[in-house]
Design goal:
Oligomer: single chain
Number of strands: 8
Order of helices and strands: EHEHEHEHHEHEHEHEHHH
Strand order of the largest sheet: 1-2-3-4-5-6-7-8
Distance between the termini: 9 Å
Shape: globular
CATH superfamily: Aldolase class I
Length: 218
């Protein structure tokens, strides 16, 4: 099994045009999270984002749409708990697709670990601006708690800004997922470059001392 590490900077973006913008700024691990779009538009966005990712040399993670990911040749998907319950994990694994799973409490963590994920996401770490969350902010301490319970990489998400990212990564997260701090920035490309610079110490550490369990590679 060869190593495939998460990048400490993990932007979550709404469409292929955003993927192109932030990949061109240097991001190397990007999630495409298309919401409230008809099926043809979802397929178009995923296909276009995959082309961008291939051209830019970055890893694209497709949120939720695992059937479309299989059909379009994606190699990484992210599932929320609701989507996990209805997903065909056998089909996902047979297609050679890596898997990230959202968690918000210990019961969900158990559900996620039963699926043998390539990473677990924990959130929200801080209060969020994008949407109202039914869960209270987890706080930095919960990152360490999750880190002690899992052997795969840990993604932290929810209210994370450039200024908060170093604390999140120092608390034990492998990667800091970011939404509004990029898409609501006055200059998203420069903000992405600032994130890449700010997270460089953790990128260097990961490269020099990879974790004992790696993400699957196909």
């Amino acid at each position: 099994m060869s190593a495939c590490l998460l990048d400490p900077f993990y932007p979550v973006l709404p469409d292929a045009a955003w993927v192109a913008r932030i990949a061109s700024a240097g991001a190397r691990f990007i999630q495409l999270r298309v919401k409230d779009a008809p099926p043809p538009a979802v397929k178009t966005e995923i296909a276009q984002a995959l082309k961008v990712a291939s051209a830019q040399g970055c890893q694209l993670v497709v949120n939720d749409y695992w059937r479309e990911a299989i059909g379009l040749g994606a190699d990484f998907v992210h599932l929320g708990q609701g989507d996990l319950a209805g997903a065909d994990l056998g089909a996902i694994r047979s297609a050679g697709i890596k898997l990230g799973i959202s968690t918000h409490n210990l019961e969900e963590l158990d559900n996620a670990l039963a699926a043998d994920p390539d990473y677990v996401a924990l959130g929200p770490i801080y209060p969020t601006k994008l949407k109202a969350m039914p869960w209270k902010p987890q706080g930095l301490g919960r990152i360490g708690e999750w880190r002690a319970k899992i052997s795969c990489p840990l993604v932290a998400i929810g209210g994370i800004t450039l200024e908060r990212a170093p604390d999140v990564l120092a608390a034990g997260a492998s990667s800091a997922a970011v939404v509004t701090d990029i898409v609501m920035s006055d200059n998203p490309e420069q903000r992405a470059r600032d994130w890449i610079a700010a997270t460089a110490p953790w990128r260097d550490i990961s490269a020099a001392h990879p974790p004992t369990r790696y993400l699957r590679t196909t």
